[in-house]
Amino acid sequence: MIGAIVSFSAMAVAGRALSSDLDTFEMMTYRSVIGVVIVVSMATLRGNLGDITTRDLPRHAIRNIAHFAGQNLWFASLTLIPLAQVFALEFTSPLWVILLAPFLLGERFTLRKFGVVLCGFIGILIVAQPGTTPLSLGTLTAASAAVCFALTGIFTKQLTRQHSVTCILFYLTTMQLVFGLVCAGFDGDIALPTAEGMPWIIVIGLGGLTAHFCITTAMTLAPATVVLPIDFARLPVIAIIGMVLYDEPLTWPVFLGAALIFGANYVNVATESRRT
User: Model pTM?
Assistant: First the structure.
């Protein structure tokens, strides 16, 4: 989980560093190129290329459209609002899963889950502070990214029932490479990375894969009730990074709202773990 925290934080810093030279579509294009090379190389070395099938291509496409949209919104948010606020709003993604799962996964929506979502929603309001400050574009993009990541998680769960991780990652990288090329080249101009920007592109390309690999591995080694609190340590870490590198203030509403969001998520995970 420490590896995941480092990876996500490094991606945030890299995304902000590249924002002056590349738009989000170009970042995703170059990130996907690195991802394709890594996934195909690892699948070849491990003899898993046969796991890649053409079944469920529409579901792969929907999953990757959601992820592509969410990742672009997340990168955009990094340049619009403080890093701590981006991460706090991102942590609402599991709450959106609770709301969407009855429709997409057939799961029951119980009174306890309603309480979890309500508590998380109060946390969102504290972070966003509607009424005290104008609702910013960055707040909207970060909140929308959380919804897209929730959809990504739901469709990933559906795909894992019939497909290997290699197959899912292959279509994750290749489809989003196509999406990135189409969106980045829509205006007829795809900016090439500079020599100074290339290390940051590598950080983004490696960071996305290593972060999810670390979280998946952590889940196999420890209960979710142990893993989840460590994941929320990303917030104070990125808040300190934002303060040191970008002079972003440490505001109490972000931490209070994030604490409520964390509490709601933790209660849900702990209850489900006991039931299982």
Answer: 0.87
Cα separation, 29 vs 136, whole angstroms: 27
pLDDT tens per residue, the chain (276 residues)? Answer: 899 999 999 999 999 999 989 999 999 999 999 989 999 999 999 998 999 999 899 999 999 999 999 999 999 999 999 999 999 888 888 889 888 888 887 878 888 888 888 888 888 888 877 666 667 899 999 999 999 999 988 888 888 888 888 899 899 999 999 999 999 998 878 898 889 999 999 999 999 888 878 887 887 787 766 777 788 888 888 999 999 999 998 888 888 888 888 888 888 878 877 776
Contact (Cβ atoms closer than 8 angstroms) between residue 175 and residue 61: yes
- Rounded Cα distance, 187 and 25, in Å: 11
Hey, how many other C-beta atoms are within 10 angstroms of the C-beta on 219? 14
How far is Cα 210 from Cα 38, in angstroms, rounded to an integer? 11
| Residue 1 near residue 212, CB atoms below 8 Å | no
